[in-house]
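Notes to self, Flagellar basal body rod protein FlgB:
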Amino acid sequence: MLDKLENTFHFQQEALSIRNKRQEILAANIANADTPGFQARDIDFASELKKTIENGRTGSHGMQLAMTSERHIPIKPGYRLEADLLYRVPHQTAMDGNTVDMDMERSNFADNSLKYQADVTFINSQVKSMMSVLQQ
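result:
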């Protein structure tokens, strides 16, 4: 039972981590819209999530925590997303070499934000359902 619960939350955690990383990348693209020669970047959410699921959580990243008492709760090492950044292929490059298309970036930013919020709402509903079952 707890394994299924942990797997469900692990999947949602990974999805949120990838969406968060993509949001940071899109924000950087928007912030550098006027930077000469800046190349817009992005990640493919579906392929990154698939890669994360296939590889599982890699426990080699992050800092190892020491347990000085047997009563400490063991914590798995943290996971750092190492996404494959892709260069965005522009429809039309600016004269200064910048490949940021503000309309596309804003659209992708808003779309990713909505999907992130939907994932958070889904997790909240799962937790509320669990809490209501436990209270009965």
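- The CA atoms of residues 59 and 77 lie 6 Å apart.
- Residues 1-58+102-136 form one domain.
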